[in-house]
Amino acid sequence: MEKNEQRTLKDWNQLLAFLAAPDEKDFEKLSAPTLILAGNGLPILADKAAQMYVNGQVERLFLVGGVGHATRILYENFEKQGFHFEEGMSESEICRQYLKEVYGLPDKALLIESKSTNSGENATFSLEILHSLDAVPEKVLLMNDPTLQRRTRATFEKVWQNEQTVFVNAVPFVPEILHFSEEIIFTAKELNHQWPKEYFYALVLGEMERLHDDENGYGPKGKDFIPHIDISEEVWSSYTRIKQSIKTDFSRT
């Protein structure tokens, strides 16, 4: 492997570790009354959430997410596994049907929110539903596409700031890139072929722009959607080098 390629891999993997932000290295040790699974394009996260319920790590799965940027990718990734869903379903509805059919999860194990289209709405609408049930938990595990995990927690902490709830990132894997070819190849084989390359670039580098607390970011100096997040000089340098090598528009509403 050439030196430049090694540097690029190190930069990418540094960003991925930063964005995934796992709170507990041993995923099997995590537990809470509720796991919120935010809508995303990765079917394996539905599997991981189901396993947590089956293992007794959580009492309930709260599936949140309507139709958004990841919906088509979620459909396509499930289709690769032989699962086909009716067109027009939300991300949370797709996951609910999958979890009931494959794992036989009972209705009492599942809550659903199917209207939100971004992280802010994920947090807002889920809280509204829990308030209506008088069931806001003291602790919540959060699970999302690992490239979105750090911002997901920051968003929930901002929106739920008047609650006493403690949030913990439930990260079953931190993506690590093995090498680049026509597709991105990961050390964890189950992540291969899950993100189209350009979509993956936009997710990762777009997240760095949103987390950066300046006039263009989501922090207090920008849109004020999330609290200030510290980004080390080392991580930001990795982002800068990668962005200079890729010409893509990472903006997303």
Describe, in plain words, how this protein is organized in 3D.
This protein is an alpha/beta fold. The chain has 2 domains: 3-20 and 178-245, YdcF fold; 27-169, HUPs (Rossmann fold, 3-Layer(aba) Sandwich), CATH 3.40.50.620. The chain is built from 8 helices and 7 strands; from the N terminus they run αβαβααβαβαβββαα. It has helices at 3-20, 43-54, 71-80, 91-103, 119-132, 149-159, 197-211, 233-245; strands spanning 32-38, 58-64, 110-113, 139-143, 166-169, 177-180, 184-186. The strands form 2 sheets. Strands 3-2-1-4-5 form a 5-stranded parallel sheet, sandwiched between helices. This is YdcF family protein. Residues 46-185 form the DUF218 domain. It comes from Enterococcus faecium (Streptococcus faecium).
What is the averaged pLDDT score? 95
Domain unit count: 2
State the low-pLDDT regions, or none. Answer: none
The main β sheet shows up as: 5 strands, parallel
The run of helices and strands is HEHEHHEHEHEEEHH
Task: Determine Rg (CA atoms, Å).
Answer: 18 Å
Number of helices: 8
CATH architecture of the largest domain: 3-Layer(aba) Sandwich
CATH fourth-tier homologous superfamily of the largest domain? HUPs
Separation of termini?
Answer: 38 Å
Report helical residue fraction.
Answer: 40-55%
Shape: globular
Strand order, sheet with most strands: 3-2-1-4-5
The secondary-structure class comes to alpha/beta
User: How many extended strands?
Assistant: 7
Which CATH class of the largest domain is shown? Alpha Beta
Determine the CATH topology of the largest domain: Rossmann fold
Question: Per DSSP, what share of the residues sits in E-state strands of 2 or more residues?
Answer: 5-15%
